[in-house]
């Protein structure tokens, strides 16, 4: 089986050299030229080929490399790790007729306005939100919510809470909107409370694993040099949770 892995992360983070085994598959690990030295120094099995692109976000270059791989051996799986790579991976699957997450699902995963709209339509409560094009849109949303600060302004397709701003006054609103100028933005009401996350592994339409965790800090702590570490809960028996 020909498997393409989009690996725009360091080898120390992914540790691909440790878990890609010498099996019957062939793995094409695609990463950036900036990471060439660390990937070339790793101890990969003989069934792993390394491919490099100079600019990860120059779509033509990345597609060109994937096309060359497919011309040599038909790709059967495409794997990505980063939030920002989810959509390009889905588009590559469509182009090369590879099974896996489709574009329409990837968009719901990446576009926060469409994601929250979809959740609301299916009965899952979400905070009030709105896509905004400029400062006036943001101020109108705030006025409609009786100026009950704080609010959150962030990119529609951001990842990992990067470039997310919690604003407490008009000056901060102006700065946040200006910071995101040129990209799709959204504003939403701020909800205070503890942050939880649930990770699920589903195989052949069956849930095989669920892990529930609570962030020890908020998701913006990294902006102040603080880790966003999690504490995980373990299901010991039915209806019993251990911390």
What CATH architecture label of the largest domain applies? 3-Layer(aba) Sandwich
Query: Helix and strand succession?
Result: EHHEHEHEHHHEHEEHEEEEE
Strand arrangement in the largest pleated sheet = 3-2-1-4
**Stretches where pLDDT falls below 50 for ≥5 residues?**
236-243
Euclidean distance between termini CA atoms: 40 Å
- Work out the helix count: 9
Structural commentary:
This protein is α/β, with parallel strands linked by helices. It has three domains: 2-109, 3-Layer(aba) Sandwich (Rossmann fold), CATH 3.40.50.20; 129-189, 2-Layer Sandwich (Dna Ligase, domain 1); 196-242, no CATH class. Helix content is 32%, strand content 29%. The protein has helices at residues 11-14, 16-19, 36-41, 59-72, 86-96, 103-110, 112-121, 135-144, 170-179; strands spanning 2-6, 26-32, 48-53, 75-80, 129-132, 151-155, 165-167, 185-189, 196-203, 206-215, 230-237, 240-242. A hairpin with a 2-residue loop joins strand 9 and strand 10.
Supply database-style keywords.
243 residues; alpha/beta; Rossmann fold; Dna Ligase, domain 1; 3 domains; four-stranded parallel sheet; four-stranded antiparallel sheet; 12 strands
Brief summary:
This protein has 243 residues and is α/β, with parallel strands linked by helices. It has nine helices and twelve strands.
Set down the secondary structure blueprint:
Blueprint: E1 2-6, H1 11-14, H2 16-19, E2 26-32, H3 36-41, E3 48-53, H4 59-72, E4 75-80, H5 86-96, H6 103-110, H7 112-121, E5 129-132, H8 135-144, E6 151-155, E7 165-167, H9 170-179, E8 185-189, E9 196-203, E10 206-215, E11 230-237, E12 240-242
Parallel strand pairs: 1-2, 1-4, 2-3
Antiparallel strand pairs: 5-8, 6-7, 6-8, 9-10, 10-11, 11-12
Helix pairs in contact: 5-6, 6-7
């Amino acid at each position: 089986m020909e498997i393409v892995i989009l690996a725009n992360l360091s080898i120390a983070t992914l540790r691909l050299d440790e878990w890609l085994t010498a099996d019957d598959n062939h793995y094409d690990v695609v990463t950036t030229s900036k990471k060439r030295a660390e990937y070339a120094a790793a101890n990969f099995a003989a069934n792993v080929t390394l491919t490099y692109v100079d600019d990860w976000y120059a779509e033509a270059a990345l597609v060109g490399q994937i096309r060359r791989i497919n011309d040599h051996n038909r790709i059967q799986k495409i794997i990505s790790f980063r939030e920002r790579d989810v959509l390009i991976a889905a588009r590559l699957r469509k182009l090369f007729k590879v099974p896996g997450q489709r574009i329409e699902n990837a968009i719901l995963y990446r576009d926060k306005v469409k994601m929250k709209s979809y959740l609301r339509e299916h009965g899952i409560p979400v905070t009030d939100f709105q896509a905004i094009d400029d400062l006036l849109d943001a101020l109108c949303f705030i006025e409609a919510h009786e100026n009950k600060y704080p609010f959150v302004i962030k990119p529609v397709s951001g990842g990992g809470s990067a470039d997310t701003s919690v604003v407490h006054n008009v000056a901060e609103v102006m700065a946040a909107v200006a910071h995101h100028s040129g990209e799709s933005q959204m504003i939403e009401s701020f909800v205070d409370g503890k942050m939880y996350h649930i990770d699920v592994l589903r195989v052949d339409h069956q849930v095989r694993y669920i892990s529930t965790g609570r962030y020890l800090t908020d998701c913006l702590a990294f902006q102040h040099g603080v880790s966003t570490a999690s504490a995980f809960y373990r299901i010991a028996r039915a209806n019993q949770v251990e911390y």
